[in-house]
Design goal:
This is Integrase catalytic domain-containing protein. The chain contains eight helices and five strands. The chain has 178 residues and is an alpha/beta fold. The protein has two domains: 112 residues, Ribonuclease H-like superfamily/Ribonuclease H (Nucleotidyltransferase, domain 5); 54 residues, no CATH class. It is globular, with a radius of gyration of 19 Å.
Length: 178
């Protein structure tokens, strides 16, 4: 079960006033949405649809003390799924007004495919068991992409199955690293 932090930052970009961010403590995986307003219902919907439905029921949810993150509806959601809800200190990101809503998916890709010092692995590899093929590797093929493109479908499937079998070992190594 995952332990997620939830924060939101404020900025004005193409009508998107807020960014709601969750971070899994173990894998450092991030889920993010942009919102015109951070209502209690929007937060609860995000937690149900984008966190619980994708990652399963959380052991603990840590939020800042903002009213739209700590309220009766969120408390009821946590009670329904038996999630321990804790509060942390407030978090406010400072943004420069750029069109961040358009660049957000690329920023997430960069974050999720960079090695975290705390785990010694990328969040992507801890979630999916392999490293991602980045857009630049398609434009300028890397040795990995060239090698995989020459595999027959059955051989590729066999290698992928072997990689997935090793994900438990990779996660254990990461756990020992921390």
């Amino acid at each position: 079960m995952a332990l997620f932090n939830v924060w939101y930052g404020r900025n004005w970009s193409n009508g998107h006033l807020f960014i709601l961010i969750t971070i899994d403590y173990f894998t450092k995986w991030i889920e993010v949405i942009t919102l015109a307003s951070v209502t209690t219902k929007a937060v609860a919907r995000f937690l149900k649809r984008d966190i619980i439905a994708r990652h399963g029921v959380l052991a603990t949810l840590i939020t800042d003390n903002a009213k739209n993150l700590s309220n009766k509806l969120i408390d009821e959601l946590c009670a329904q799924f038996k999630i321990q809800h804790r509060n942390s200190s407030l978090y406010r990101s400072q943004m420069n007004g750029a069109d961040w809503h358009e660049m957000l998916p690329f920023a997430l890709l960069a974050y999720q495919t960079s090695i975290r010092l705390s785990t010694g692995a990328t969040p992507y590899s801890l979630v999916y068991g392999v490293e991602v093929v980045s857009p630049v590797e398609v434009e300028i093929p890397s040795m990995r992409v060239i090698a995989e493109s020459k595999l027959k479908e059955a051989e590729w499937a066999k290698q992928r199955y072997e990689q997935l079998n090793l994900i438990g070992e990779k996660r254990l190594t990461t756990l020992c690293h921390g």
